Amino acid sequence: MTSLLPQSAPPTAGHPGKLIQPDWAEIVRITPETEGISTFWLRFIDPQVRERYHFQPGQFNMLYLPGYGESAISMSSDPEDEERLVAHTIRFVGTVTKNIGRLKVGDVIGVRGPFGTSWPMKQIEGRDLVLACGGIGLPPLRPAIYHIIRNREKYGKVTLLYGARTPKDLMYPDEHEEWQRHDIHMEISVDRGDENWDGRVGVVPMWFYNFRIDPRNTAVLTCGPEIMIRFVIYEGLARRIPAERIFVSLERNMKCGQGSCGHCQIGPYFICKDGPVFPFSVLQRYVNVEEY
Amino acid sequence: MANPEVLAELKKIPWFGTLSPEHLEKLAGITTLRPVKAGETLFKEGDRQDYVYIVLEGRVALEIFVPHRGKVRIYTCEQHDVFGWSSVTPLVRQRTAGATAVLNSRVACMDAEKLRQICDEDRDLGYLVMRRLANVVASRLMVTRLQLIDMFANPEEKNA
Q: B24-78 pLDDT, tens per residue?
């Protein structure tokens, strides 16, 4: 039987066969994004690892800070980055990420990965795409956006729905114009506007009420707070987009990154190994369960 | 006989496409079109409820005045969104939020009193209108719930 799950790349592509030992990377740039969120640009210290390391859009690394532990963070940079830098956009919320937030340019951090499944960029070629994300859900989709821009002719109509709490919480504002120049239609909405905000006030799933889509040829990629994802899925299904073409990226408390410890289990699946990107058809029976 | 321009505009709205020509004609007969400039106020909180509106073009914000915070923009209505719907079922006989155009817009204004009369006289049309309004209310409720959850808040802030 063919698995419905997207294919995982071999783990630790940077260091084949070594699942536990991290590679070391230097922080070469830190870009503050919004309050409590910054992007860390890393360069592997070992030139061989730098050369070998490659990730797919949607995958994550385990970032290791000695003395504090590890945290699973999706890559947010272009997988084809010419400088071979790998970026992670991090919200400083737990012990590990708060202490990563104290690091400076030139500091060194451990990296294991890349782990997990990726956005099915090949599988969705030729389709109209709706990328629906909110808050910290945009960074895991940004590598997919770069991929789409590099291969724009391979995709149909592309719409990026992006929701944030307030206008000042919008991430990567300097890039929005560039994305739109590459025929990516952006719809931004905030939960709370002020009198100076002339964009939308509302929530991401509402977009489906205002626009027409062709369900026969549309794929949805969604990432963000799980409650938002759930409503995006409802709206997508209500418009007859098949569950196999709605792809979700889930976040859980990942520890080992290789499906051994069970911290990130959902039903029979491990988010770190079988995910984080799943077609909704795989998760359908678990999402209407409270505390799924 | 309804204004042909109004009729043509209503026909562009997907929901009106499901109505019979007779029903469409009745609704067009109580509707006027109005251009609204960005920044122009359509109604304020406390105003009498006289019209139900549909955005034809542009964007209209619903705002509530909160003491010490000023006007808080709670929702923006996009093309084909209905707002001012509570005037059809006037539990509260005054506007509970204000509406201001954010962009240069055009709206269809449906006389709420006449709409109620038409719905009372023609129960088939009344059912269709109320069902549509129930959908509008349900979608607003969904938005309100998601905003209430404050889903983008920092988890630590939420737990504080």
A: 999 999 999 999 999 999 999 988 878 999 999 999 999 998 888 888 888 999 9
Q: What does the pLDDT look like over A215-267, one tens digit per residue?
A: 999 999 999 988 899 899 989 999 999 999 999 998 766 666 677 777 777 77
Task: Collect all residues with Cβ–Cβ distance below 8 Å to A220 and sequence separation of at least 6.
Answer: A129, A130, A131, A132, A232, A236, A241, A245, A246, A247
Is A94 domain-assigned? yes
Q: Which of chain B's residues have a Cβ under 8 Å away from the Cβ of A229? A: none
pTM above 0.90, yes or no: no
Domain with B64 in it: 4-150
- Do B154 and A197 count as a contact with CB atoms less than 8 A apart? no
Could you tell me if residue A180 is inside a domain?
Answer: yes
Q: What is the chain B residue with the closest CA to A202?
A: B75
Residue A33: which domain range? 23-115
Give the distance, in angstroms, between the CA of residue A216 and the centroid of all CA atoms in the same chain: 25
Question: CB distance B74–A201 less than 8 Å?
Answer: yes
Average pLDDT, chain A: 87
Domain of residue B66, CATH code? 2.60.120.10
CATH number at residue A35: 2.40.30.10
Q: Which chain B residues touch A227 with a CB distance below 8 Å?
A: 146, 149, 151
User: Both A80 and A136 in a single domain?
Assistant: no
> What pairing do the DSSP bridges indicate for beta strands A184-190 and A246-249?
unpaired
Contact A91 B156 (CB under 8 A): no
* A139 lies within 8 A of chain B by CB: no
Residues A90-114 pLDDT 10s: 999 889 999 999 999 999 999 998 9
Which residue carries 């077609």 as its tokens? A279
Residue type for position B40:
E
